[in-house]
User: What shape does this take?
Amino acid sequence: MMEADAIAIETVTAAAVREAVPALARVLADCVANGASLGFMHWNTRADYERFWEGVAADVEAGRTVLFAARRDGEIVGTAQLHLIGKPNQPHRAEIAKVLVHSTARRQGLGETLMGAAEAAARAAGRTLLVLDTDADSAARRLYRRLGWTEVGTIPRFALMPDGADCASTFFYKALD
Ligand SMILES: CC(C)(COP(=O)(O)OP(=O)(O)OC[C@H]1O[C@@H](n2cnc3c(N)ncnc32)[C@H](O)[C@@H]1OP(=O)(O)O)[C@@H](O)C(=O)NCCC(=O)NCCS
Assistant: This one.
């Protein structure tokens, strides 16, 4: 566990992932309520978010996903995922997904620290190529550029914002040596 002030970043184990579901759903609900395009609309409910995290929990239990949680004073306020691609012809590749920091905990370096944890886990798993995508207008795009990711391009109208507006997505990769 890495600690800075009262913040701790942890890898959520298969044994602990189910009990983290309600807290992870709270963080996701907060991000969607604050306008982030994360696969959900404004009308989605807490039950939808919990169902999403139950699916992630199954992936963690199956060893397909490495899940990170950032806790502030013990409470989960941020998260990120590393998806270990299972295709036989892509044993070197992984994807980073759902990098989320609660609106009350942003701009304190948590996003960067979560990305660092995901990158370290990718290296430990022998993955040398990382891919991700994000809302073209999000703070995440600046963060990924700053962290040395290469921007590949932007696809207009890729998804919808929670309020139904069009959302362009920007795709990135990072090669690890
Ligand atoms: C994107 C997101 C994860 C960033 O989380 P964060 O914890 O705020 O990230 P960081 O603090 O590491 O960096 C963000 C900014 O804070 C700044 N920052 C970091 N520490 C700081 C500090 N102590 N004081 C002031 N600013 C600081 C960074 O310079 C960075 O600025 P920039 O965006 O202008 O480059 C967060 O905004 C979020 O959850 N957004 C909604 C969900 C989303 O869109 N996720 C990505 C899609 S998968």
